Amino acid sequence: MRGMRMLATLFGAALLLALAPGAQAQLGQSGLVGKPEGITIITDPVKWPATFQEAPSLAALVREGKLPAVKDRLPQDLMVIQPVREIGKYGGTWRRGFTGPGDDENGNRINASDRPLLVDHTGTKAMPSLAKGWEQSADGKSYTLFLRRGLRWSDGAPMTADDFIFWFDEIYGNKDITPTPIPDMSPQGKPGRMVKVDAYTVRWEFDVPFFLFEELMSGDTLIGGGQAVRQSNGRSHGAYAPAHYLKPLLPKFAGGVDAANASARAEGFDNWLSRLHFKKDWTRNAAVPVLGPWRTLEPINKSTWVMERNPFYWAVDTVGNQLPYMDRVVMTLAENLEVLNLRAMGGEYDLQERHIDIGKLPVLLENQGRGNYKVHLDLALNGADAIYHFNQSFDGDAEIAKWLRNADFRRALSLALDRKQLNETFWLGVATPGSTAPGESLPYFPGPGWREKWSTYDVKQANALLDKIGLTKKDSQGYRLRTDNGQRLRIQVQAVQAFLPWPKISEMVADQWSKVGIQADVKDTERNLAMTRTKNNEHHIMVWNNGGTELLYLFPRHAIPVDPTEAFMGPLHALWYASNGAQGVKPEDPNILKMLELFSSAAGQKADERIKTAQEIWKILIDQQYAIGTVGQSPALMGVRLVSNRLGNVPDRNCIAQHCRTPGGAHPETWFYKN
């Protein structure tokens, strides 16, 4: 392999890959990492096609009188897409793997074009989607969205501003459905309003400047995420909903709560709310109208999750072919990740990036010919794939809490990490060691030196810091002792076997920390239990990634304690922030208060100032080491991508970031089978 040196060693069924020194730099020469590329949206109506074509299966339904003609199914304000390379052809089924009903994100991401706005392939610029345009007032207090005229839901019903107003008034505004207000709608704690301007125009109004709103609308956020976003924690995301379908399910329109409950029980539901949550979930209810390229045919709780093309999808290519090109998406249930990866190696999937194990990279490369696929490595923009979040609001043990909140304690543990060993063992040497700082190509990167700060291997300095703060006494095995009772100091690391083998990674981290006298007990915890313990403020250290924080304001909860649902850094502090001080615990650490103050102020700042604010936040985060980064900017999380040689228009490199909604950001509706 050009530019790389591989050492393949058989160990059970796995192969380990060793790259030559400077492997990160050599990846670009290997052919595994391509150049970023993406579709182009044609916004000039003069360049739009005048005639339209459709898939043969839809043409047959038109002839049978079961569908309107294609020209009548498309909006007047077209979404015209120029594919990455060429005009495709119709037909084929996208074969893909999934892990069961909890893997709904697998499909959500495929249908991610159903958002009001999108981001481009670089992950930095807003693009039209359901909205053909947008406008922010000079004072930042209003934001206007111009929808495409003639949009239709997958059942043919018109999609208009009324669907936005219905969501805002009846879904978001209903405390039974949305008990916790979305922060994106309340800058500085002051609720915003949604106003219908006309049938295809909606405007958000705020009492304070909210220049951040444009960024939020184009990201994977609670307000901008679209219909195909996971529904969780009692929230209903996406800024719109199919009013014609959901309205009859609500007590307000069904004759009251008793009547709505009776109707729900007649359908086998406990009450009207449980029926609503099921009915609005596109992954489980095939009948709910959608706006994405594909709609569910067989639901996610079966052995195959089947999606078929949306006959009213509102995008065409530059010659007038209604998208998507592919007829169906069929996801086959894999009982575990090992089975999924074995099927991928065997060429049973046409494109798979989710759940592909980077540890299988040598075997995947070796089987490219037999499986008729090519391996791509898409390097992520996040800071780290394994981050050790120190709970700053922990109150279960005063001695433990004291050290979790001590900056020099955290810095010492960061300095004690041998990131090179971690990288070579679990990332095959292809990741970038360092702090939690986002990728250098992003505007929020804090600058030179911040990826290395407190993140170089230095056992001597780590020991010196631990001695300095008073952890000088040790037991016979060299472990440091508590200062309150003389027993061994033990900190607990909560690790989930999810996207990466975090428990195994943490065992190596614990071994490295033992060399400076710190005992870390790794608790391999089931994901739901781990999240419950986190919300209950029971964890010492939680290991996760900081994916989504690349553009800090779009997904801040894995960096700053602002969202109690996943506030690994301090759930009680997040609850205090989210409730405007009504609940939770106010941080005593002035640096945390400063970060929260900066974060709140950013909403009213214009882009240049907002970038400086984000950089300042990152500097505080890294200097204080509230979360210790290991390695990042790797392909480990959805960046090891297997692409069938039969597929066309697939980019050489995808944007790997939460807001890019991989692989949806690469617009799979433009992919096609060449043969």
List keywords for this structure.
Dipeptide-binding Protein, domain 3; disordered N terminus; globular; five-stranded mixed β-sheet; about 675 residues
Describe the 3D structure.
The protein contains 21 helices and 27 strands. It starts with 8 loop residues before the first strand and ends with a strand. Helix 8 crosses helix 9, helix 14 runs antiparallel to helix 16 and helix 20 runs antiparallel to helix 21. It has a five-stranded mixed sheet. Strands 5-15-13-12 form a four-stranded mixed sheet. It has a domain of 246 residues: Dipeptide-binding Protein, Domain 3 (Dipeptide-binding Protein, domain 3, Roll), CATH 3.10.105. It is of the alpha+beta class. Strand 8 and strand 9 form a beta hairpin. The N terminus is likely disordered.
CATH topology of the domain at 387-632: Dipeptide-binding Protein, domain 3
Radius of gyration: 25 Å
Please state the second-level CATH architecture of the domain at 387-632.
Roll
The top level CATH class name of the domain at 387-632 = Alpha Beta
* Sheet with the most strands, sense and barrel status: 5 strands, mixed
In which order are the strands of the major sheet placed? 21-20-22-18-23
Number of strands: 27
Our measurement of the CA-to-CA distance between the termini, rounded to an integer number of angstroms, reads 28 Å
User: Averaging pLDDT over every residue, what do you get?
Assistant: 91
Strand residues, percent: 15-25%
As a percent range, the share of helical residues equals 25-40%
State the shape: globular
Give the class from helix and strand content and strand pairing. Answer: alpha+beta
CATH superfamily of the domain at 387-632: Dipeptide-binding Protein, Domain 3
Number of helices: 21
Low-pLDDT sequence parts: 1-25
